[in-house]
From TrEMBL:
The species this protein was found in: Paramecium tetraurelia
Catalytic activity: L-threonyl-[protein] + ATP = O-phospho-L-threonyl-[protein] + ADP + H(+); L-seryl-[protein] + ATP = O-phospho-L-seryl-[protein] + ADP + H(+)
Domain Protein kinase: 73-352
Name this polypeptide is given: non-specific serine/threonine protein kinase
InterPro entries in the record: CK2_alpha, Kinase-like_dom_sf, Prot_kinase_dom, Protein_kinase_ATP_BS, Ser/Thr_kinase_AS
Similarity section: Belongs to the protein kinase superfamily.
Keyword vocabulary terms for this entry: ATP-binding, Kinase, Nucleotide-binding, Serine/threonine-protein kinase, Signal, Transferase
C-alpha cells in the first residue's frame, strides 16, 4: 500500500507540458501551438491554460488535499439550497463567520474536481474563495466546503429593481470574474442570476463551482450541464467539443434578462423546446449554417424567421435599452460560439464605457 501511495504521489506531480503527447488520464492529445490557433473546434482564447499544470491539479484521481477539521465549525441557519447541496451560516472556533456548503452524496471524483477548480481560481477577483474542505465525514461520499462569509443579496432578489448604471456595473464585474477564471483554464458552466451575489458595497461575486470544469482543447464534454434556461445552443444540439463560450452565452442571457426585464429570456419546458425558443429569435437559417459548419446533426430543427432583439422592448423596460446594449447582446447571443464575444472582448464594448475600471 505504501508503494502505491508513493507512485500516485509521483504521478500527481507530472505536468502536461510535452507536446505532442497524450494525457492518458483524460484521453487528450496536445500538439504544437500552431495546431490550435484558429482551429475550428478549439477555443479562441486560453486554449493552453492547462498545458503546464500537474495531474494533481486537474485530474481528480490525483488530487492531494489536506482536509480540515469539521469540529472547528458550528452550523447555524440555512441560507440556501441547490440540486446538490445545502448552504448554512456557520461559525469557526476562532469566532470567524463562515458559509458552510454541505454537498449531498455524490461520486468522489466530482467532489475532488470541485476542490481542484476552487484551488485553480484562488486569488481571482469577484469569485467566492474557498477556506477549507472536509471530505468523507461518514460512509457516504460527501463533503462540506467552507467559504468566506459575505453580507450580500442574491442578484435574483434585485431583478426588476435596478437602473441601467447598476446593471452595467454588475455585469462588468461579472465579466471580470469570467475573464479571470477562463484565463485559469476553468469553465463555470452554470452562470445565472441565482449564482451571483452582491455585497453591500456593490461588489459582485460569482459563486457555486459545482459544475466547473477544466478546459482541454478538443476534449469531448458532457452537454447535460448548466441550467436549461441558460444553456448555450452548442449544448442543446449536443456539440460536446465546447469551451469557455458556454459561459458567455449564459452571461448574454443574464444581461438581456436584466435589460428587457424578462426572466428567463428563453423559457423552454425541456431541451427541445428550449432550442425552439432560441430559434424563434435567432432564426433557423443561421442554426443550419452552424450545424453544417461544425458537422453536427440535429433532426427536424425548429423552423422560424430571425427576429431583432427589439421585439423585447416595451414601455416597462424602454428606459433600460440603449443601442450599445442591443449591440452587445447581439454579439453574445449567437449560435456560433467561435464568433461569440469573449469576456475580455465584451469588457471592451462601448456599453461599459461609463463603468470600465
Amino acid at each position: 500500500m505504501h508503494l502505491i501511495l508513493m507512485v500516485l504521489a509521483v504521478l500527481g506531480q507530472c505536468k502536461l507540458n510535452t507536446k505532442p503527447h497524450q494525457n492518458h488520464f483524460e484521453n487528450i492529445f496536445y500538439y504544437e501551438d500552431d495546431y490550435y490557433k484558429n482551429h475550428l473546434r478549439v477555443s479562441k482564447v486560453y486554449w493552453n491554460a492547462n498545458f503546464n499544470k500537474r495531474l494533481k491539479d486537474v485530474d481528480p484521481r490525483y488530487l492531494y488535499y489536506k482536509d480540515g477539521d469539521i469540529k472547528r465549525y458550528t452550523k447555524y441557519d440555512k441560507i440556501g439550497r441547490g440540486a446538490f447541496s445545502q448552504v448554512f451560516i456557520g461559525l469557526r472556533d476562532d469566532g470567524e463567520a463562515v458559509v458552510m456548503k454541505e454537498l449531498k452524496p455524490m461520486k468522489w471524483q466530482a467532489i475532488n474536481r470541485e476542490i481542484q477548480v476552487l484551488k485553480a481560481i484562488k486569488g481571482t477577483t469577484n469569485t467566492l474563495q474557498l477556506i477549507d474542505a472536509i471530505r468523507n465525514q461518514n460512509k457516504k461520499q460527501n463533503a462540506t466546503f467552507i467559504y468566506q462569509y459575505l453580507s450580500s443579496v442574491n442578484l435574483l432578489h434585485l431583478f426588476g429593481k435596478l437602473e441601467l448604471p447598476k446593471i452595467q456595473l454588475y455585469m462588468y464585474q461579472l465579466l471580470k470574474a469570467l475573464n479571470q477564471v477562463h484565463s485559469k483554464g476553468v469553465m463555470h458552466r452554470d452562470v445565472k442570476m441565482a449564482n451571483i451575489i452582491i455585497k453591500e458595497d456593490d461588489t459582485l461575486y460569482l459563486i457555486d463551482w459545482g459544475l466547473g470544469e477544466f478546459y482541454h482543447p478538443k476534449k469531448r464534454y458532457n452537454t447535460r450541464v448548466g441550467t436549461r434556461y441558460y444553456k448555450a445552443p452548442e449544448l442543446l444540439v449536443n456539440n460536446k467539443q465546447y469551451d469557455y463560450s458556454v459561459d458567455m452565452w449564459a452571461f448574454g442571457c443574464t444581461l438581456a434578462s436584466m435589460i428587457f426585464q424578462k426572466q428567463p429570456l428563453f423559457k423552454g419546458k425541456d431541451v427541445y423546446e428550449q432550442l425552439d425558443k432560441i430559434v424563434a429569435v435567432l432564426g433557423t437559417e443561421d442554426l443550419l449554417k452552424y450545424l453544417e459548419k461544425y458537422d453536427l446533426v440535429y433532426p427536424d430543427p425548429p423552423i422560424h424567421t430571425q427576429q431583432p432583439f427589439t421585439i423585447y422592448i416595451d414601455p416597462e423596460n424602454a428606459h433600460l435599452v440603449t443601442k450599445e446594449g442591443l449591440d452587445l447582446i447581439s454579439k453574445l447571443l449567437i449560435y456560433d460560439h467561435k464568433l461569440r464575444l469573449t469576456a475580455e472582448e465584451a469588457m471592451a464594448h462601448s456599453f461599459f464605457d461609463g463603468v470600465r475600471m
